[in-house]
Amino acid sequence: MGFIPEWAIGGAVIIFAVALAPVVVVKLRASYGRRTAAEQAIGELRQAFEAMQIRLGELEERLDFTERLLAKYREADRLEPPPH
After folding, report:
1. Which of 3, 48, 67, 78 matches a 20 to 30 Å C-alpha distance to 31?
2. CA triplet 13, 17, 22: central angle to 5 degrees?
3. b/e map of 8-18 (b: 16 or more CB within 10 Å)?
4. pTM of the predicted model, to two decimals?
5. What is the rounded CA–CA span in Å between residue 82 and residue 78?
6. For residues 26 and 32, what is the distance between their CA atoms, to the nearest angstrom?
7. Cα angle, residue 59 at apex, residues 58 and 62 outer, rounded to 5°
8. What angle do CA 13, 17, 23 make, to 5 degrees?
């Protein structure tokens, strides 16, 4: 008594592994789904960041244009002859 054959222990391990496999697969799929959602969120943030960079570039161009116009206006004021 008290003797458990090796084949019985091996069979129990196989049965336990087969019973546990669906749980492991479900958890792996769930973590993959979360990872995919996180990757999607990162992609959306990257797109938003790129759009902001484009808008910032456009604003810089407008600012440069405005500065050039103001500089021309100030130069024109300086170059006019003084009033008599």
Report:
1. 48
2. 160
3. eeeeeeeeeee
4. 0.50
5. 9
6. 10
7. 90
8. 150
Ordered per-residue pLDDT tens for the chain, 84 residues: 467 788 888 888 899 889 989 988 888 888 877 778 888 889 999 999 999 999 999 999 999 999 999 888 777 767 666 666
Tokens 């600012």, residue located: 63
C-alpha 69/C-alpha 27 separation (Å) is: 63
